[in-house]
Known about the structure:
By secondary structure, the chain is mainly beta. The chain has a single domain, classed as Sandwich (Jelly Rolls). 5% of the residues lie in helices and 43% in strands. The chain has one helix and seven strands, in the order H-E-E-E-E-E-E-E. It has one helix at residues 10-15; strands at 24-29, 32-42, 53-59, 61-66, 72-75, 79-82, 88-102. Strands 1, 2, 3, 4, 5, 6 and 7 form a seven-stranded antiparallel beta sheet that branches. It is globular.
Amino acid sequence: MARPETPVNIDEKLAKVTDHWSPKTVLEVNGLEFKAVKVQGDFVWHNHPEGDELFLVVRGELTIDVRDRPSAVVKAGEMFVVPRGVYHKPYAAQECEILVMDPPGVVNTGEVTGELTAEEEWI
């Protein structure tokens, strides 16, 4: 469903996410996809040359290491944008629930492929 006709409940969508680091697309608006994700532990260093990436923390705390810049600690209710092409590595000591905003078709691990590379899936 690209543009739902009813409100989207973020808690309900996040409840459907069972695997860490496996984003599920919730909706698309103005050419951008909003994805629900649960994260815990380390991710991989990667970048997204196709566009900026926005992280919105719903619950928990997310650290985003960024090459050549200070790390960002993003808490519940806060957002952080990683600019297009910038290498970054998210990390969460405890389970953290987030929304990520990307252009359509963006792979969660960027140009890196491996066990944390997720298939595109809508919920």
